[in-house]
Amino acid sequence: MQIEFQTSVGRKRKNNQDTVGVYQNKKDITLAIVADGMGGHQAGDTASYLAVTGLGEVWEETMLTQKDEVCEWLVSHIQEENTRIFDKGSSHPEMFGMGTTIVSTVLLEKELILAHVGDSRAYIVRNQEIKQLTEDHSLVNELIKTGEISVEMAQNHPKKNILVRSIGVPGEVEVDISLINCQEKDIILLCSDGLTNMLSNEDIKLIMSNGKSLKSRVNELVEKANEAGGTDNITVLLIDFDDELQEDTP
């Protein structure tokens, strides 16, 4: 298994509110996280950083290896980060209302445990096909599900960036948990919407399946998103379940 990631400020923003991290616990079980912060000034930076490092640092001290325990841990600790971020925003006027999305995965051999809140996404590429593994917690997705707008209309909807679920809200936040059985040739993508707002699923699939090294594919996804406009911060994390290391041909 290989993991590579990269984050970019993009071409329109002055600062990067995305945070990405990869952590191992005491049993060498990997937790990978992407968070996309929201809020004025540097509040979004703070929210995403708190969520990722808060989860990661606690994970490093655990010895969890069992699926049920990991699922429970993810939900409870994302809830704790939600409270911590809300409390910090409430006590610092310059950070009031800050929040973040989060998409995270724990890798248990060939099984993937996903936990997410917001519209940062996880995808899988298998047998030359791409599938979104997470559901956006956004207003436009709710409108799509009720049939009020089409998927095509959602692409340029004026309220596209409004979330119905995020980290940093009062009370409890609902955390989506899903389990994915992975195969040797699978590639998993975690990303912020700075990638998916710029590139289609087909564009992403072609890059993820091009046979280049994992690092080259991460770089190319970020580069193509910037070439397409780079209107937001862009974060890409790829997990390759192929046991053979890939090298780029000269």
Automatic annotation (TrEMBL):
GO molecular function: protein serine/threonine phosphatase activity
Database matches in InterPro entries: PP2C, PPM-type-like_dom_sf, PPM-type_phosphatase-like_dom
Protein keywords: Hydrolase
The keyword NAD is annotated on this UniProt entry: no
Enzyme class name: hydrolase
EC annotation from Swiss-Prot or TrEMBL: 3.1.3.16
Domain PPM-type phosphatase: 1-241
Annotated protein name in UniProt: Serine/threonine phosphatase stp
Organism whose genome encodes this protein: Vagococcus luciliae
